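Weekly sync, protein design subgroup
Attendees: M.S., D.O., the rotation student, P.L. (late)

Item 1: inverse folding check
M.S. brought a backbone from last month's batch and wanted to see whether the design step gives back something sensible before we order anything. D.O. pointed out we never logged the input encoding, so this time it goes straight into the notes. Structure tokens as presented (235 positions):
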């Protein structure tokens, strides 16, 4: 006959299982939603229907430019460049390896590598020319759609938040980590519009592509965990 403690443990296990299923479903739905959003932006861009939106947003942003803000935006866009993000990514993976956090290492390695591949494939597929930058900034040589800064910064900082936040006990610490991650993601993407090196639709598409990739990784991870648990139960 089961004790009260056993009943509570069983009920807690069932709630945890339902929670995991819900997370997996939400991850799948989120990935599909972001994919549809990306497809819609891409179609509108190819048909030239984003031109008015891009022009209006860029004009409003540029109209509020100041010397101090320009300095901040230059710093943010440099921080989101491959010159900085590549060493940061390697350092992050090295720290995971040294600390023997192999689960985090695999997740982040897949996250970073997938973001790089996705950026290269999508830019080559759409071949969108760059806008004319502001502030005498040289026009980047790569294609414009989607924004690589937006895509990779989303995957990098959101990936770190996903790995770090569950290890924090205090709710406020979790909120702080996510707030910092979102602030950097938004700041880097906004800097690309402010400096005129990307259209606003490029940045939105970069965020959407990054979200698709991260949501897909999360969905695959949840399925893998459920399969492992099922195998252990059957064994």
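Designed sequence read out in the meeting:
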């Amino acid at each position: 006959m089961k004790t009260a403690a056993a009943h509570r443990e069983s009920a807690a296990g069932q709630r945890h299982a339902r929670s995991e299923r819900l997370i997996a479903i939400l991850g799948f739905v989120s990935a599909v939603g972001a994919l549809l959003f990306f497809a819609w932006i891409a179609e509108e861009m190819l048909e030239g229907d984003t031109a008015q939106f891009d022009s209006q947003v860029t004009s409003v942003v540029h109209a509020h430019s100041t010397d101090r803000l320009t300095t901040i935006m230059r710093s943010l866009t440099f921080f989101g460049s491959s010159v900085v993000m590549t060493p940061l990514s390697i350092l992050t993976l090295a720290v995971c390896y040294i600390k023997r956090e192999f689960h985090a290492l695999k997740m982040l390695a897949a996250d970073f590598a997938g973001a790089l591949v996705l950026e290269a494939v999508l830019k080559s597929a759409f071949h969108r020319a760059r806008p004319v930058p502001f502030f005498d900034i040289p026009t980047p040589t790569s294609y414009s759609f989607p924004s690589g800064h937006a895509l990779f910064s989303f995957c990098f900082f959101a990936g770190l938040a996903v790995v770090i936040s569950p290890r924090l006990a205090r709710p406020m610490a979790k909120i702080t980590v996510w707030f910092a991650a979102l602030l950097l993601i938004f700041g880097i993407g906004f800097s690309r519009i402010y400096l005129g090196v990307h259209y606003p639709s490029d940045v939105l598409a970069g965020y959407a592509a990054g979200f698709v990739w991260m949501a897909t990784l999360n969905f695959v991870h949840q399925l893998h965990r459920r399969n492992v648990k099922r195998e252990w139960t059957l064994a």
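Discussion: Confidence is low (pLDDT under 50) at residues 231-235. The radius of gyration is 21 Å.
Action: P.L. to compare against the previous round before Friday.
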